[in-house]
Amino acid sequence: MEHSDEMTFAEYFKAKYELYRGLISFVVAMQWLTDHDFAVPTDRDARLMEIEVSRQMCDAWAEIYGIALREWLDGQ
């Protein structure tokens, strides 16, 4: 197989997915901190935030896929 500098769609989607996961994680953490007067979260709280991030990622998956596909095709 020949080396290519072009990204496959799978690579592009993974990068886009991780970007959105990071943004959603930040928002969930900031929301939790402001709701709890910037207290340090317990392990249980951290796990609940992780679950919320996963739930929001499931809700946004199709939209992220569509955005990534359109952007990737525009770059081809």
SS elements, strand count: 0
Low-pLDDT stretches are: none
Radius of gyration: 16 Å
Shape: elongated
Report the biggest beta sheet as strand number plus sense, adding barrel if it closes: none
Structural class given helices, strands, pairing? mainly alpha
Element order: H for helix, E for strand: HH
Number of domains: 1
Mean pLDDT: 93
Termini separation: 20 Å
Count of helical stretches: 2
Helix content: over 70%
Measured by DSSP, the beta-strand proportion falls in: under 5%
Record the SSE blueprint:
Layout: H1 9-35, H2 43-74
Helix pairs in contact: 1-2
Concise structural overview:
With 76 residues, the protein is an all-alpha fold.
Describe the structure.
This protein has 76 residues and is mainly alpha-helical. The chain has one domain (9-74). The chain has 2 helices and no strands. The two termini are 20 Å apart. The mean pLDDT is 93.
